[in-house]
From TrEMBL:
Keywords: ATP-binding, Cell cycle, Cell division, Cell shape, Cell wall biogenesis/degradation, Cytoplasm, Ligase, Nucleotide-binding, Peptidoglycan synthesis. Involved in cell wall formation. Catalyzes the final step in the synthesis of UDP-N-acetylmuramoyl-pentapeptide, the precursor of murein. PROSITE patterns: HEAT_REPEAT (PS50077). This is UDP-N-acetylmuramoyl-tripeptide--D-alanyl-D-alanine ligase. It catalyses: D-alanyl-D-alanine + UDP-N-acetyl-alpha-D-muramoyl-L-alanyl-gamma-D-glutamyl-meso-2,6-diaminopimelate + ATP = UDP-N-acetyl-alpha-D-muramoyl-L-alanyl-gamma-D-glutamyl-meso-2,6-diaminopimeloyl-D-alanyl-D-alanine + ADP + phosphate + H(+). It is found in: Cytoplasm. ATP binds at residues 112-118. One of its GO terms (molecular function) is UDP-N-acetylmuramoylalanyl-D-glutamyl-2,6-diaminopimelate-D-alanyl-D-alanine ligase activity. It comes from Commensalibacter intestini A911.
Length: 462
């Protein structure tokens, strides 16, 4: 494994100091001793519920190359490999900035109300046809995850893909500045975090801040149907950045046509630079076609041969909790696993995908959508027409979904419970062969417990 950080790199990046001269060869970065690996540099982050300083001894015993701390650690020998800094979170941020500045490859950043992680994974898969790719792990997209992604960035990698998230005003700009992308993708503007952001205009303005970190003549990509398109156009104009749109009209920079949505896969044609190219995806869903169009636009902006992207894009597979289709454990049926997170837009999209699967019976299992604040009830109730037209039986959990459940036609009402765990035996009791279940809700609702119980464990591990 290649060395990411030496003692010289660490002191230059953070301004910290070791108690004595010592050679350091760090091959990874960790902020969690539960997943630490030999050779990692352990950064003792002080969180709301845990202080990483309490775990430094454990990290060093597990083989950490060194630890980064802001407080003296009782019981450690004087020559212990500990870099002392003023603030460990700032040190992580400084390491991310240092790693980004020394990186000579291309950087792509992705933000959006929905679809960030799926688009990131799709882009990562496609870029692998053109070189080595470093991408954010999971949904590492906040003030910890973004610098952590950069601090783990190997110097000799060809491409880096970062994900940038937000739920409050003012969060995008500093993270985007840290990433300094050559290309940015904004997947969508929707009602996610509406409780904090108040309206869609504020969300669009906040998302547009990613464009301010793109260099002059760089590229930003958005769906042509995105809410607040004029906001993105104006920001791009001010920054002298090329804003490219993806859509189905002749006005789109990347035109998507001849869309075929099937139960197992999708196909479409993309027109770009007067080239007409046919693409296929191994997963169903119109939203994936839109995401693929954004990925194609990014590939084109990199100036590589887009023909090579065709087979790479076809190999992309959706991940657990993000649209993966799994077999039921006991019956001959399927689960559309959308359990990782939810917004009103993503639930509507998932319901459309469920209908593509053409099951004998469509069972919809929904948990609450979080961070909607005073708009929560109206946002949840806005789903009623979509649910009633796409479901044969509905199970719900959470206080907001109870309001939705109570307004469903009685024939659609399966059951409501306070928690996902309580729903499991009720769902199991009604399952029949050829049923297909959609399971979706905010991550804190723990909807994945339903999926784990109902699906074949051996398949889920894959």
């Amino acid at each position: 494994m290649s060395v990411l950080w030496t003692e010289t790199d660490l002191t230059h990046a953070t301004g910290g100091s070791f108690p004595c001269a010592m050679p350091i060869k760090g091959t990874g970065i960790s902020i969690d001793t539960r997943t630490i690996e030999k050779g990692d540099i352990f950064i003792a982050i002080i969180g709301e519920n845990s202080d990483g300083h309490a775990h430094i001894q454990k990290a060093l015993e597990a083989g950490a190359a060194c630890a980064i701390a802001s407080n003296p650690i009782a019981g450690l020998p004087e020559n212990a490999p500990v870099l002392y800094v003023k603030d460990t979170l700032q040190a992580l941020t400084d390491m991310g900035r240092y790693a980004r500045h020394r990186f000579t490859g291309k950087v792509i950043a992705i933000t959006g109300s929905v679809g960030k992680t799926t688009t990131k994974e799709m882009l990562k898969t496609t870029l692998s046809a053109f070189g080595t790719v470093h991408a954010a792990a999971g949904s590492h997209n906040n003030h910890l995850g973004v610098p952590l992604t950069l601090a783990r960035l190997p110097i000799n990698t060809n491409f880096c893909v970062c994900e940038i998230g937000m739920n409050h005003i003012g969060e995008i700009a500093p993270l985007a500045e840290l990433v300094s992308p050559h290309i940015a993708i904004i997947t969508e503007v929707a009602s996610s975090h509406l409780g904090y952001m108040q309206n869609l205009d504020n969300i669009a303005k906040e998302k547009s801040q990613i464009i301010t970190a793109i260099p002059v003549q760089g590229v930003a990509l958005v769906p042509e149907s995105i809410y607040g398109l004029e906001i993105f156009k104006e920001t791009a104009k001010q920054q002298q950045v090329h804003l490219q749109t993806v859509g189905t009209t002749s006005a789109a920079s990347i035109q998507i046509s001849d869309i075929h949505l099937g139960a197992q896969k999708s196909a479409f044609q993309a027109t770009i630079n007067k080239q007409h190219l046919t693409f296929s995806l191994s997963s169903p869903g119109g939203h994936l076609v839109r995401n693929a169009g954004l990925v194609i636009g990014a590939i084109n902006a990199l100036g590589v041969d887009i023909q090579h992207a065709i087979s790479a894009l076809a190999s992309f597979q959706t991940g657990n909790g993000r649209g993966k289709i799994l077999p039921l454990q006991e019956q001959n049926g399927l689960v559309l696993d959308e359990s990782y997170n939810a917004s009103t837009l993503s639930i509507r999209t998932a319901l459309q995908t469920l209908s593509l699967l053409a099951p004998a019976r469509k069972i919809v299992v929904l948990g609450d959508i979080m961070e909607l604040g005073e708009y929560s009830e109206q946002e949840h109730l806005s789903l009623l027409p979509n649910i009633t037209s796409n479901a044969d039986l509905v199970f719900c959990c959470g206080s907001m979904m109870k309001i939705v459940f109570e307004q469903l036609p009685p024939p659609l009402q399966g059951a409501w419970c306070a928690s996902a765990q309580e729903l499991i035996p009720l769902i199991q009791s009604i399952l029949q062969d050829n049923d297909t279940l959609l399971v979706k809700g905010s991550n804190s609702m723990r909807m994945s417990a339903i999926v784990t119980t109902l699906t074949a464990p051996a398949i889920r591990k894959n």
